[in-house]
């Protein structure tokens, strides 16, 4: 099926004057052939919006004002908190998203939620603040609370979790195009900072493209495309479809960020080449390897200690800290099982730091015992292209798609990761595309 294409030159989000076509209802299979219609929820023209917010940036001007970021930390509930963003920025992240906040609770002055959740500082820029919502007025009220500190406000249209189904937000709005359009349009017409959106793909690329065009026409100034369908979650996560991301990139005029399938630093350029996207967003691999965007191969304890130093300055919930440390030490805790319980019981930064110091001693001993010593420039790669790092090195979490394979493959993998690679195996760090790379995703 052919999909509509955009002009080659990047341009502003939408031309002044009449807004671009935006289907108010979910279209049939041939969106390109549908007549252009202005949805009823467009109350202002682009000219009127520009006049209302003359300095607010659009499309590629917005992207340039953000520093044309290629390396982007994804929104992650309970995990892309301020302390983690600060760590990620030290290691090459050029743009960070906050965790998703619930617009209704965030905008409600009676609730403690805002104070509990909202955290930023002057160094925490550029920053995109993400919300989930199904009520335009609530979204606007929430966005206004933080507009002064946000580079842009993002709408989550990708969350596939049960809670999102019950709450009617995230990817469960993919059947409610009119509501999605209204949510975005309300911010575009009323908010002093630009609105952006993060979407998932449909199984049908033409529908994905039509959806992205509707999101763009409503006013989104950057679109992040997570190249997985809604059903790809948990053990069904599988691969993101970069071809779909490319189709969106070719069909819209606003910048596009690609999301999905990043395990190693080299994957970022592969993703940029394959999708033609303007930047690459990483979620899960950033959690397991916060140095991902630096291209450096570093020991887990170093990143853990640095993170905890940041947590001494920036109050951080112990649940978030524990979550991060469990991920960083994912491959070491099965080796040093006694320290696992200490990590479960730790409450204060000092207690977490004591655990990490103990782990450092153990892991440094493991590293010293390895012969030949680990050489980051000479990493072995398995038949699927997974790199065989020792357990104390920051590395992506690997999962396999099918339950049957899962248990045995994962066990073998863990063994391989905990044991030094045979010296006679040919070194290759090319990040071969044939590996069945899967990560979990929300
Ligand atoms: C712990 C965790 C929390 C997440 N929370 C959010 C969120 O708040 N908002 C959102 O749009 N996506 C969220 N996601 C999804 C990611 O932003 C991203 O789209 C997905 O994980 C695919 O990227 P990846 O392959 O780099 O992991 C979350 C993912 C993870 C692993």
Features:
442 residues; alpha/beta; TIM Barrel; 2 domains; eight-stranded parallel barrel; 17 helices; globular; disordered N terminus; disordered C terminus; binds flavin mononucleotide; tRNA dihydrouridine synthase; oxidoreductase
Brief overview:
By secondary structure, this protein is α/β, with parallel strands linked by helices. It contains 17 helices and eight strands. It folds into two domains: about 50-295, Aldolase class I (TIM Barrel, Alpha-Beta Barrel); about 295-440, no CATH class.
* Order of strands across the main sheet: 1-2-3-4-5-6-7-8
Q: Quick one: CATH superfamily of the largest domain?
A: Aldolase class I
Q: Which small molecules are bound? A: flavin mononucleotide
The overall number of domains is 2
By CATH, the architecture of the largest domain is named Alpha-Beta Barrel
Question: Could you tell me the number of beta strands?
Answer: 8
Organism: Coemansia nantahalensis
EC number: 1.3.1.88
Enzyme class: oxidoreductase
Protein name: tRNA dihydrouridine synthase
Characterization of this structure:
With 442 residues, the protein is an alpha/beta fold. It has 2 domains: 51-294, Aldolase class I (TIM Barrel); 297-442, no CATH class. Helix content is 40%, strand content 9%. The chain has 17 helices and 8 strands. It has helices at 46-52, 59-65, 82-90, 103-107, 113-117, 136-146, 162-167, 177-190, 205-218, 242-251, 265-275, 284-288, 300-313, 318-328, 337-345, 349-369, 403-418; strands spanning 71-73, 95-102, 127-132, 152-157, 195-200, 223-226, 256-259, 279-282. Strands 1-2-3-4-5-6-7-8 form an 8-stranded parallel beta barrel, surrounded by 6 helices. Helix 6 (136-146) packs parallel to helix 8 (177-190) and helix 13 packs antiparallel against helix 16. The longest helix is centred in the last third of the chain and has 21 residues, at 349-369. It starts with 45 loop residues before the first helix and ends in a 24-residue tail after the last helix. Residues 1-33 and 401-442 have low confidence and may be disordered. The structure holds flavin mononucleotide. Flavin mononucleotide binds at residues 74-77, 79, 99-100, 130, 156, 158-159, 198, 226, 259-260, 262, 282-285, 439-442.
